[in-house]
């Protein structure tokens, strides 16, 4: 109670929390509420049990060549353990009190075409939460949160949604798919090791058995990804169609790695059709916390993503925005076809916005940014991309759902324009231009367009208020509605109301 009181005075935690900590029963309520809210914050992870029967371990004498593998009978996949520099965030640990469990061993999953047809390849990045700073990336806090940890800490396999070969309407059921599991909390791009760290916040959760264990945090997403890509290019060097996709945190990973992957497969000179499929993460962050701050936290700025020297410098300085970095990747690969799938009020993306904005002490985040404010900033980002490339398609769904491609009925989701996701994906797979009405800008190779405001840019009005909404054009909107954008002609919103509950589990 004393520590909570001190933190309340120093960090401005609401007085209700301070009062709750002054008696043991209220403290238990605080802890349980904290766990529940944090559990709901964790981004979507397809936590299917590892059902693949076929396993291969890479070694000096074993290359795990795809032609030599025997996929499992249940889901048609193979698990490959690459070894080397791959690993998950934390060393192996199981906590009997909180059920928190980690496994350092990394693997990836391959779904080969049953007829050995290698013409179509999709590389798909798994989602599973993220950390945002030194506090949330540390073992002590994640362990103390237990089953409510904010990111996945063990590699897991899946056969859901676009990976499910048994779905009759799954347009990817005959594709070769390389599935990249996620267990590092760094949106698949990190490349640093943080020494064990405890800020003192962990004590509030009461799980003292998690403290003082000296577990470093290995943000190893970049090395894991490169190990998978090295295997993939060796086994699928010549393809006619190449898709880089991902969900939630994996959506950001797919976007950031897109230009490098296109370069590895030399798609331009080979005439390979190249596409990026981004499910449920665009990258709306607070104006005073540019996206580059996250890359600095993950040690990712100098990784080989194909970014120009000036963007790398801005990233290292912590000033580069989502728009600036992704536009640079679009310009590096102008013939790529992109599809963004998002709900207009995605609650998980809004919770991560709050985590970045307020830090872990902002829980329980009772005043999320309004859905309209979030959507106007998200559409401002994709609108900016459409000024750089004429091949950007957006699919917006009413509501707060997070992640669509992991569902067995993913083809049946309906957009705000009444279009079915399955129909849009099928059309997108053969189109070389945006499917959105009015999105006809020609690709450019010059400086970024004027629509490059920091994602989340606002007027001086307090975010969350009805008049704080930024329109897709980057100007302040005097009302609580978002202006229709070129990528969403029918986008309209209702009067905003404060969000005071945690998001549904993903």
UniProtKB/TrEMBL annotation:
Q: Show which residues constitute the signal peptide.
A: none
> Origin, by domain of life?
Eukaryota
Where do the segments described as Disordered lie?
438-506
Which Pfam family is an annotated match for this chain, by its short name? PAE
Q: Name one GO molecular function term.
A: hydrolase activity
The record, for PANTHER family, names: NOTUM-RELATED, PECTIN ACETYLESTERASE 4
Report the protein name in the record: Carbohydrate esterase
């Amino acid at each position: 109670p004393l520590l909570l009181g001190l933190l309340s005075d120093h960090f401005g935690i609401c007085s209700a929390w301070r009062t709750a900590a002054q008696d043991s029963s209220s403290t238990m309520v605080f802890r349980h509420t904290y766990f529940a809210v944090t559990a709901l914050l964790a981004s979507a992870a397809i936590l299917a049990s590892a059902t693949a029967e076929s396993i291969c371990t890479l070694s000096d004498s074993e290359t795990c060549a795809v032609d030599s593998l025997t996929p499992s009978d249940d889901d048609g996949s193979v698990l490959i353990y690459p070894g080397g520099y791959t690993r998950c965030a934390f060393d192996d640990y199981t906590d009997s009190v909180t059920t928190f469990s980690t496994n350092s061993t990394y693997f990836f999953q391959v779904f080969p075409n049953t007829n050995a047809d290698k013409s179509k390849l999709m590389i798909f990045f798994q989602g599973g939460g993220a950390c945002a700073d030194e506090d949330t990336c540390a073992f002590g806090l994640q362990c103390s949160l237990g089953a409510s940890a904010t990111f996945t800490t063990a590699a897991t396999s899946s056969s859901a949604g676009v990976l499910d070969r048994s779905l009759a309407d799954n347009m990817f059921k005959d594709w070769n798919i390389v599935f990249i599991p996620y267990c590092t909390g760094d949106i698949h791009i990190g490349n640093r090791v943080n020494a064990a760290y405890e800020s003192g916040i962990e004590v509030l959760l009461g799980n003292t058995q998690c403290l003082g264990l000296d577990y470093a945090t290995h943000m190893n997403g970049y090395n894991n990804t490169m190990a998978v890509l090295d295997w993939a290019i060796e086994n699928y060097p010549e393809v006619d169609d190449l898709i880089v996709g991902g969900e939630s945190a994996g959506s950001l990973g797919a976007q950031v790695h897109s230009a490098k992957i296109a370069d590895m497969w030399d798609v331009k000179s080979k005439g390979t059709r190249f596409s990026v499929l981004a499910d449920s993460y665009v990258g709306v962050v607070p104006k005073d916390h540019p996206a580059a701050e996250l890359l600095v936290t993950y040690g990712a700025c100098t990784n080989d993503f194909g970014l120009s020297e000036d963007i790398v410098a801005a990233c290292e300085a912590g000033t580069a925005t989502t728009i600036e970095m992704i536009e640079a990747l679009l310009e590096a690969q102008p013939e790529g076809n992109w599809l963004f799938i998002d709900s207009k009020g995605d609650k998980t993306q809004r919770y991560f916005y709050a985590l970045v904005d307020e830090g872990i002490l902002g829980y329980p985040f009772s005043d999320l940014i309004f859905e309209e404010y979030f959507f106007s900033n998200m559409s401002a980002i994709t609108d900016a991309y459409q000024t750089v490339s004429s091949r950007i398609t957006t699919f917006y769904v009413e509501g707060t759902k997070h992640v669509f491609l992991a569902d067995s009925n993913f083809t049946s989701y309906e957009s705000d324009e009444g279009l079915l996701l399955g129909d849009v994906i099928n059309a997108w797979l053969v189109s070389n231009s945006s499917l959105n009405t009015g999105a006809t800008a020609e690709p450019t190779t010059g400086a970024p367009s004027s629509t490059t405001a920091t994602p989340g840019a606002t007027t001086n009005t307090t975010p969350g208020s009805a008049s704080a909404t930024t329109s897709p054009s980057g100007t302040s909107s005097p009302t609580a509605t978002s202006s229709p954008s070129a990528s969403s002609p029918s986008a309209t919103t209702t009067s905003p109301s404060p969000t005071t509950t945690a998001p549904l589990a993903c």
